[in-house]
Write a structure and sequence with these properties.
5-stranded antiparallel beta sheet, alpha+beta
């Protein structure tokens, strides 16, 4: 395994363009005709952005998104223009710092729905089912077991909320918010994308348990935006670790969650900086999922 690169906590000061939005991980800059998305190494858990950033995390997220956007372009148009930092010229003062971390995209009007597809009953979906027998208002058969695969994947949307958590909603509410035709298109496109990626991941010994998508509009055309099939937007399981009725160790930032839950953190304030072994283990996780999905080592 190659040595981890120096972590990037922000691109501020490296880009000669207005910063429009700073999320937990991504930064959005205005290039005029297009947007520039920079994926940093910041990491969040339990609604807190943690210190220090995790080396290679942003590169993995950006490169995986680019990989999947390319793989799915024939079945769903997306927002990618290019991912070549060299084409940004003098807009970037340190190209090496941002290499493999940038994506220039079309400017889309975001549709304020998080499109969630669940292929297995786990996480928040399992908690809903255990309490009500339903997920997002969808009645499900009695007797399902935790982590069981659905006979068919289900679509469980959430209303986007820039402040606080997104709100799980039934499909009928989604139809009210965006219209029946757009709702049906987003549902069908999301299910098609999930089925495609689930089959591809299965070939690599990975189960894609669930995932989420964001879509936008460009000149009336629905396109895929944000990120796709990354450890931050999807739940991946190693096929050989799959079990029912248990907590499966997901192939993402699980070392961070495990450490925090086992520490004396009070859960009401930002946690203390992560220990170096936890950071290193998390970098290794992100590099491993990149290798498992693409078949390539992160260079």
């Amino acid at each position: 395994m190659a040595a981890a690169t120096q972590a990037l906590s922000t691109a501020a000061g490296l880009i000669q363009a207005p910063l429009l939005y700073k999320g937990k991980v991504r930064e959005l800059y205005d290039l005029g005709e297009h947007y520039l998305i920079v994926v940093t190494d910041r990491i969040s858990a339990f609604d807190y952005v943690l210190d220090p950033p995790v080396p290679d995390k942003g590169s993995v997220l950006n490169r995986l998104s680019a990989y999947w956007f390319d793989q799915t372009a024939a079945i769903q148009p997306n927002h990618v223009v290019h991912t070549d930092v060299e084409r940004l010229g003098e807009l970037v003062s340190d190209k090496d710092a941002l290499r493999d971390r940038i994506m220039v995209t079309r400017k889309a009007e975001r549709i304020d729905i998080e499109c969630v597809v669940r292929g297995y009953i786990t996480g928040g979906g399992w908690r809903q089912y255990a309490a009500t027998g339903e997920i997002n208002g969808i009645p499900l058969p009695a007797g399902l077991r935790k982590n069981e695969r659905f006979e068919r994947p289900i679509f469980t949307p959430a209303a986007k909320n820039d402040v606080g958590h997104d709100e799980d909603i039934p499909f009928s509410r989604m139809e009210e918010l965006v219209g029946a035709d757009v709702a049906a298109q987003l549902r069908d496109r999301s299910l098609t994308l999930y089925e495609f990626a689930h089959a591809r991941c299965l070939e690599q010994g990975i189960l894609l348990a669930d995932c989420k998508f964001e879509f936008g509009l460009v000149d009336g055309e629905i396109i895929l935006i944000d990120e796709i099939f990354t450890p931050d937007s999807s739940r991946f399981w190693a096929q050989d670790k799959y079990e029912l009725d248990t907590e499966i160790d997901s192939m993402d930032k699980e070392p961070v969650r495990t450490y925090l839950l086992g520490s004396d953190w009070d859960k009401d304030s930002k946690p203390a900086p992560l220990p170096e072994p936890v950071v290193a283990a998390t970098t290794a996780r992100y590099r491993a999922i990149y290798r498992a999905i693409t078949g390539e080592e992160l260079s």
